[in-house]
Write a structure and sequence with these properties.
Layout (H helix, E strand, L loop, with lengths): L1 H60 L2 H8 E5 L5 E6 L3 E8 L9 E8 L3 E6 L13 H8 L4 H15 L4 H4 L2 H14 L6 E7 L2 E6 L10 E6 L9 E7 L2 H7 L2 H61 L1 H4 L2 H32 L8 E4 H18 L3 E6 L5 E4 L1 H17 L6 E9 L2 E8 L6 H4 L23 H11 L3 E7 L3 E9 L3
């Protein structure tokens, strides 16, 4: 079962790890593709910005009408709605154009117009109208067909790129344009993270950047921008996605939470099962100890009673009234002892079921302490010990059941006597703390470990000392004490150190 649980946890962790990696790769692909589109748009916008201005200048200086008849023939078929445009030679023309809009260093730019050789273009009309009915001249019709040939177009683009490369980056693009393009493309790729961006030149800052951009962030992606021909660009556009991890994790949040939740349920069920197994084992051990102790506790008085009865049957003893009286008292005391053991077990059972009727009356705690001391005083004297009272509480009136609370104090004193290997030395203290009277019983006995202190108020629990019968009892005394104290709305606690003795403290509410 343990291996199965470990396997489930491992599989869940492996699945979550792979899913996160997969989502991170998808995010990176989307981010890089978005950057590619942004860079394309930036370069396209720059070309458009200068290209049409350059083309308009070229148009204004081009001897279009004069050269048209030499370069092209526009032939009309008599019975057809199709037109053919022919070019039968390669013509090269040079133009000198003002470059103020591109560079302050050059006063003009030379570029060439190239017309492809042997070019034929077929244009079909879908109606049967006469071309002349449109009111267009041959020149105008040609301009509609092909404003600028491809070779000239690419030449103009090269001119724009070459001359724009000499401008500072902040003259070519600004942060508003970049942010607009990123916003347009980021939604297309379903990227929902906030971002910061910046353009760097050979690793150095430029003016084109957002305020909070950080280059060394692990969520930063970069791509060259404004490249020219095959030369490596000096500029790179970087975008830092601040909420990258949040977006990656949010995509698997629901499944991840459910997976973790179900795993925790399995772990909890497994832990509960293991805990129950240990508890059952502990209960079994406690019951076994209880039976052994009860057997021992009953075996001694039964043996004593049998011996007393055998003695009474002896004719010599039968003639001695004093001896008979002594043996009869012995039988009576042992019988009381067994009866007390049975009553103790039944009392605990009734307390747990709330069947024990405990009537409370106004009592003096100090008087109850003196009564309890009288019950054990002879035992302490026989062992050459002492019980000293330090009853310093100025108020000690409580609402209690005289019999049960006296039994509580007697039980605690009895424990202090039993667990004192040498002569028992017991001190009893009382004091007032706010609205409570506190009773402390301190001994100098064998003490107990920390783990034992947590369990001594459990029913049937007894600390193992190697010899299970070296201290008589069956683990019900302190369980009974705790039940009675709690029924009196009080609290009981213990402080002990091994070999240093123990201090039991009872806290009970005062009444006026």
């Amino acid at each position: 079962m343990s291996l199965s649980l470990i396997g489930i946890i491992f599989v869940q962790g492996y699945w979550i790890k792979n899913t996160v990696q997969s989502n991170e790769e998808q995010f990176s692909i989307a981010a890089k593709q978005m950057l590619i589109n942004v860079v394309k748009d930036l370069e396209s916008n720059e070309i458009d910005k200068y290209y049409f201005e350059l083309a308009s200048v070229a148009d204004s200086t081009k001897p279009f009408r004069k050269q048209l008849s030499e370069l092209f023939q526009v032939k009309k078929e008599d019975y057809s709605s199709e037109y053919f445009v022919y070019s039968n030679s390669l013509v090269e023309e040079e133009y000198k154009i003002s470059s103020q809009f591109l560079s302050d260093q050059n006063d003009s730019i030379f570029f060439k117009k190239i017309t492809s050789k042997k070019l034929a273009t077929k244009i079909s009309r879908e109606d049967n109208l006469d071309p002349n009915s449109l009111g267009l001249s041959a020149e105008e019709r040609y301009q509609r067909i092909n404003r600028i040939v491809d070779a000239e177009k690419y030449l103009l683009i090269d001119v724009v790129k070459e001359m724009a490369a000499e401008l500072p980056i902040h003259k070519r693009v600004d942060t508003t344009e970049i942010r607009t393009l990123i916003d347009e493309n980021i939604s297309k790729w379903d990227i929902k993270s906030d971002y910061e961006f910046g353009i760097f030149s050979n690793g150095l800052n430029t003016k084109v950047r957002s305020a909070d951009f950080k280059l060394n962030s692990p969520s930063t992606y970069g791509i060259p921008v404004f490249g020219y021909k095959d030369k490596a660009s000096d500029y790179q556009l970087f975008v830092n996605f601040e909420d990258k991890n949040q977006q990656i994790l949010s995509s698997i949040a629901l499944m991840g939470i459910l997976s973790i939740l179900f795993t925790l349920v399995i772990v909890l069920a497994f832990s509960t099962a293991i805990s129950q197994l240990f508890k059952q084992r502990q209960i079994s051990q406690i019951k076994s100890d209880f039976i052994n102790n009860m057997t021992h506790e009953f075996k001694t008085p039964i043996a004593t009673i049998n011996l007393a009865l055998d003695s009474v049957k002896n004719p010599k003893i039968a003639e001695n009234p004093d001896a008979i009286s002594r043996y009869m008292n012995m039988i009576r005391e042992e019988n009381k002892r067994m009866h007390a053991q049975v009553e103790n077990v039944l009392r605990i059972s009734k307390l747990e079921k709330n069947e024990l009727d405990i009537k409370k009356e106004k009592q003096s705690l100090h008087e109850l302490i003196h009564k309890a001391i009288n019950h054990v005083d002879l035992i302490v004297e026989n062992r050459e010990g002492y019980i000293k009272s330090h009853l310093e509480a100025s108020q000690y009136t409580i609402l209690a059941n005289e019999t049960h609370l006296t039994n509580v104090i007697v039980n605690m004193l009895d424990n202090a006597i039993k667990y004192s290997p040498k002569s028992p030395k017991i001190d009893i203290y009382t004091e007032v703390v706010k609205h409570f009277v506190v009773l402390s019983i301190k001994d100098q006995g064998s003490g107990m470990s920390k783990s034992t202190q947590k369990k001594i108020f459990q029913k049937f629990y007894r600390e193992h000392t190697g010899d299970i019968h070296n201290v008589k009892g069956h683990g019900l005394g302190l369980a009974y004490v705790k039940q009675i104290v709690e029924d009196h709305q009080g609290e009981i606690s213990v402080y002990s150190e091994k070999g240093q003795g123990s201090t039991f403290t009872i806290k009970l509410p005062l009444i006026s």
